[in-house]
Amino acid sequence: MKSFLAGAVRSFSPGLCVVAAFGLISAGIIALLPAKPRAGLQVWVGDGNHANLYRALAPEWDRLHPDLPLQVSLIAGPALQSRMLSGFYSGTPIADLVEVERGQIGQVFAGPIEDVGFVDLTQRLKDEGLMSQINTASFSPWTTRGHIFGLPHDVAPVMLVYRADLVEAAGIDVSQIATWDDYFRLLRPLLKDLDGDGYIDRYPLTLSLTNPFFSEIFLLQGGGGYFDANGQPTLNSAANVHIVSRLATWYAGPDRVVGDVNMYTGSGLRLISEGYAVAIPGADWFAGAVSASLPLMKGKFKVMPLPAWEKGARRTSVNGGTMIGLTKASKHPALAWELAKYLYFSPVMAQRLFELTHIVSPMKANWSQSYYDRPDPFFAGQPVGRLFLQQAPDVPLRPASPYFSAAIQMVNNVITQLMASADRRACSDPAQMQPEAQRLLDEAQKAIVTQINRNVFLSPPHP
Amino acid sequence: MKSTRPHPAWAPWVFLAPFLILFTAFIAWPLVRSLMLAFEQTFGPRTTTFVGLLNFRAIVRDPMFWVAVRNTTLFTCGTLVVQLPVALALALLLNRPNLRGRTWFRLIFFSPTIVGSVFVGVIFSLLLEKRTGLVNSLLHAMVSRWNPDFPWIDSYVMPSLILASLWLSVGFNMAYLLAALQNVPGDQLDAANIDGASVWQRFRHVTLPSIQPVLNVLVLLTMVGSLQLFDLPFILYADSFGNGPGNHALSIVTYLYQTGFRSGDLGYASAIGWILTLLLVALALVYRWWTRKEEHGT
Fold first, then answer.
1. Can you give the residue ranges of every domain in chain A?
2. B145–A197: do the CB atoms touch at under 8 Å?
């Protein structure tokens, strides 16, 4: 050792020796410093509103649990997903409770059921009687192979958020609307070229055509979808063929009736406020986002149930959604479980959530609360909470799958191809689109089955 | 000069150690691990199953992979055909002896390279937006018959990507070519001028051969960079996770990302990564062999 040090001093300049010594000493100090223990009960969330709601509880929580203070971390969606998966896969530090959005959950479910990083809540929910107290459909996105891994945050029923000022000024009575055919027939006068330049400046219905979650709203409403309750893909079901053919002729062709808006951007909000968009299908959280983003439009919007695909059929759908999961790595599972139930199901939190975001609680016992009946000035005095809750029992199921992202993308590509075909053939008859829709959806189904069959962890293989 | 203090044998290793440690930790080991992953199916690092060549066999039969290959190839060809000539033209313009404000022009053309592809992607998505985008708004204001909802991004996927890439990278290529042009021997150009060579002849027979080595490197860099296309489509087509309408924006690396980080199939993603790596190496070797042969031939 002596000769090593002597050799080092002899070989290197004094300055280099000092730098090297500093480097070694600081590296040693860092390596020897004890890892900072995770303090308190950790909750990771991806939404700023949720974070504010939960943080407001911290003083009360900390008073009751001085040794385990509440730590709520707001983490951007992709970062939250990466950190959550790293925690599950590699044992890196992870919160006791993690909130996950629907688009993020698929990857958590891609492996063997025993390797899912969240605690299986199925038995616990049954034992505590929560299964029957919570809206059934709200569990479906968080369920894989019959096991429930999260508490549902919401119901996310979909209604039409529409410009009541424009519709009523045109003398249109929306109570006459029962089906989508009625809707487009009655609202056709609003399909207008306002400045005489030969281009439509106002559409009766507006979506983000490239956003596959909008197509999902219509598929689920019409009894279609992507996977059945066993996780088997159903991309080429008869309902899907019927609906995508209709959508293609709405979105394109000579009788196009749907406008395209990049919904969640400044551009989208501008077009909504300028009246380019007369109506947009959106869940309760979307209604909340519109009222928060466009306060100057107070009184100009209303909500109405979605027109049905067929008379007497479902008047709602579902869009978005969040869960909270208890991680297997939690050192305080009992307290975390109690906290999760309080955050999601207590009347106090349900009220705060609704008042901040318009999101209605999935806990049926909360549905009778009077705050849901309050007239909302932004929506021209409508009791928006009650109107969304009236749709809650009809919200469709949407079984989870690790291949959900791939599936919605594939179906949206089918719609894109059908739109191009409708434009090319100048076709506005859905019946004429159906053979092509069937062929394209068959191809998509084959592709997704191939992907699923490749996964050796999901057994038995799909046919 | 002879050293008065001979270094001990281990001294070079001490100097090399930082590089070797970082290289091993962040390049060599991940490479080896990804090669192993390409023959496995995984659910995180703890749950793995050896599947032999299954991932590679599946890729060959995977239509989405071939869509990604087709799109990436189209983008690469489009970029090469558009970007280098534009960069050369700009470099030639800036190389004119009496040009005023050369430094400003250089800064302006080079600045998109500094801001990076994510910024460029966001800017282009705003510029090319239907109805509210600057391009459609301006065109509609100038020509009322212009469709304010003209679907640049939706219907012209590849041109939009190539245009955004042009704006991003043309300054970088221009800077290299400008430096090369400033090294073209002046006496040769003067001699050609005295011999009565036209502008085109001087460019073809004097300038172009002189900048050929730089051009060759730029072609290689552009090819390799284009084959790794990811961030531009990922930002421009965020709604569809980078696929774009009808999968027209899906690139090989986007597909790799989707399979690895959205579907969680890291083995499949690694196999795609290795196919891309082999493709890039093969392409680079062939290109170098071809250009060297050409350089020796001349």
1. 41-152+320-389, 158-311+396-454
2. yes
